[in-house]
Amino acid sequence: MAKVVVLGAGMMGSALCVPILDRGHEVHLVGTHLDSEIIDHLRKTGSHLKMKSALPEGFAGFYQHDEFDQVMAGADVLVLGVSSAGVTWAGQKTAGHVGSGIPVISVSKGLVWDGKEFVLLPDVLASCWPEDIRNNVAPAAVVGPCIAGELVRRVQTCVSFVSRERSVAVHLAELFHTPYYHVRPSDDLVGLEVCAALKNAYALAVGFGRGINERQGHGAGSVAMHNHEAAVFAQAAVEMAMLVDLLGGRPTAALGMPGVGDLFVTCQGGRTSRLGRWLGLGLSLPEAIEKMQGATLEALDIISVISQALPSLQDRGFITQDDLPLMRHLCAIVNDGAPVDVPFGRFFGDL
Fold first, then answer.
1. Which residues does 219 contact at the CB level (< 8 Å), separation at least 6?
2. Short-list 231, 159, 185, CA closest to 239
3. How far apart are alpha carbons 50 and 64 in whole angstroms?
């Protein structure tokens, strides 16, 4: 049995506790500074405020962020359940606790563009640690199709644990896998992390179809936009594979669970898909964001990051102006306020 500390009591961080508990580990769930109400509610009711469902019994405890230091004493594994925006905060918060070489795994999804190259979120995390720690701890990440509410219900789920040090991913997979939580270890950090980030952007585009269908006067039922959605989905897979290859990952990642698998899940009515629907209905981006009522919209973050990188990638000859037509359209919507007008005619250029 291992002592596992989970920092971040959002939906995914909390859901990941379920298979860890089922493996018989000692689980301590610590909220961030944004999770105070969630932790208070868990302490009083055992139910998660946002998932509106009870978490299993057996937690060693629920803690506020200012209790993190004392909870980390004797920890064997650290799980980070923070959003992409919280990775730097988490790196700073954990810097004094990872020197012993305990494995660290994160559920965060995203990329950063530093003006010259893309930086993966596990590397952003490690950059917050002292150099001697960075040389001894290889952060891992959870990648793949997983809806938090389904994992809490123990629905069959297949994910990857990925780290540049394959042994770290293997060790964590052995600790956390269950008969319903199937974990494949990998060392293709670039391939899997790029897919994990991009799928949010492309799910937004798939969501356009539902909104366009409604704008044309069709409700739910036999009249749908599946032809439209399928073409966008397929182009998304093509572009994900191209970007993974360009950044040094294995393009096959885009064709498996980390890519199309995760994209499929993200298209199934979550916040990214809902934002796409509003845009497909004809709302402007500010109007669509207002409809989302403060929901975290990581799709917009990754589209912004890619839009910053495209001119440099094109100037250096890595891509041409004809490459990535779907992503370029997403960039035009986010940066220039362009209306939804999916460039289907540009999807089949070299076929």
1. none
2. 231
3. 17
Spatial CB neighbours of 308, under 8 Å, sequence gap ≥ 6: 113
**What are the residues whose beta carbons fall under 8 Å from the beta carbon of 40, sequence distance 6 or more?**
none
Q: Which fold has domain 3-187?
A: Rossmann fold (3.40.50)
* Average pLDDT for the chain: 94
pLDDT tens-digit profile of 130-157?
988 888 889 999 999 999 999 999 999 9
C-beta separation of 343 from 326 below 8 A: yes
| Every domain of the chain and the residues it spans | 3-187, 197-346
- Residue 118, both tokens: 């893309």
CB under 8 Å to 201, separation ≥6 — which residues? 299, 302, 303, 306, 327, 330
Contacting residues for 18 by C-beta, under 8 A, at least 6 apart: 55, 56, 151, 152, 154
Q: Which tokens belong to 196?
A: 């994990």
On whether the 197-346 domain is CATH 3.40.1280.10, my answer is: no
